[in-house]
Amino acid sequence: MNAEIVAVGTEILLGQIVDTNSAELGRKLAEFGVFHTHRQTVGDNRERLAEALRLALSRSDIVFTIGGLGPTQDDLTRSGIADALDDELIYDKSIEEGIRAKLRSRGVPLVPSMKNQAYRPSCAIVIDNPNGTAPGLMCQKEGKTLIAMPGPQSEFLPMLAGSVTDYLKSISDSVIHSRVLRVAGMGESMIEREIADLMEMTNPTVAPYAKVGEVHLRLSANAATVEEAKNMLAPVEEEIRKRLVDSVFAVDEHSLEEVVVELLRKSRQTLAVAESCTGGGLGFLITSVVGASGEFLGGVISYSNEMKQDMLGVSTETLEAHGAVSEQCAKEMAEGVRKKTGADWGVSITGIAGPNSDGTDKPVGLVHIAVSNRDETTFSENRFPGERRAIRERSVQQALIDLHSRLTAL
User: Fold this and answer.
1) What is the number of structural domains in the chain?
2) 127/136 Cα distance (integer angstroms)
3) Can you list the alpha helix ranges (DSSP code H) found in 255-346?
4) pTM above 0.85, yes or no
5) SS3 209
6) Domain closes at, from 222, 251, 280
7) Which of 90, 144, 254, 334 is at a distance of 20 to 30 A from 58, taking alpha carbons?
């Protein structure tokens, strides 16, 4: 079976709210092996909604609507569904009685507009809404199923976890199970070159997704059970790891900063950072890891040359001859913060995040990163594209990648 989601609401189209409900429903569909092939968003307009639903019903076995079930004039989902199904919209007295009972329990009077929620297409059965007055609807006609769900998360999520999950269980004979391999230090095109043949498979499937400083490889298998799907994915993952060597740093939700902290923990080593253009971004990510206080000693945000000299011991000669954005300065910053704090590792970032350069001919996006321990100080020169925020994010991620590379080489 395949499914389609139609999110209803002009506020979504205007960007006033982010549609997280469709993502939640998409994950639930995959859990029960229902192929989610299309997704639409339509504003609060009866004709356009009906048109979107007719299209969805023409190509999907199950169609979900999210939103537009409330009592106001722009809540048009019930009418749009009736139009799309060529069905009659009827007033259901039992729904009104349910609304009255809920309002009575809250000590709230029934206003006339609330009665709008008691209308339903004649082919629809009611789905209980434990946290709201607008019931969900399930319509089945000519072999197609259309399920209408409320938009507010406090109502949507309980309905999804309850009645909708029960329905999906009743129709499911398979699962779609996924596993995400996180890759750092390789671009998407390079990875694709290494695993091009694997990306042509149909079950399991392998698909790359570019992230900031990383590439995620989603491995998905359709099978009768989760265990069977895992067994299908295992040899594919093994082959990818073999081809990409140490570039796969984590699986599923584990972040690079979590992996770095765990490597420090296992080796009983500590870290300190010195940051210029990232303004504490690297320290922020490291300290977002629960329990990082055992491995992270602290950092210095040395934005000015004076701070680089006074706090980190960067020499005047280095700054005059090479400038703050240089290999020499980055190395001295990393070594300086390591010695200053007594950490086993020091990592530094110095660069030009823009939008303007530093008064030299050095380009915006030039970032120098150094990683230092007692044995060696290594360095990378990077030229990141994008605006200021993107350059700062990429700089932090690259610093983690460089440190991860050193730690895994031990």
Assistant:
1) 3
2) 4
3) 256-266, 281-287, 305-312, 316-321, 327-341
4) no
5) strand
6) 251
7) 90
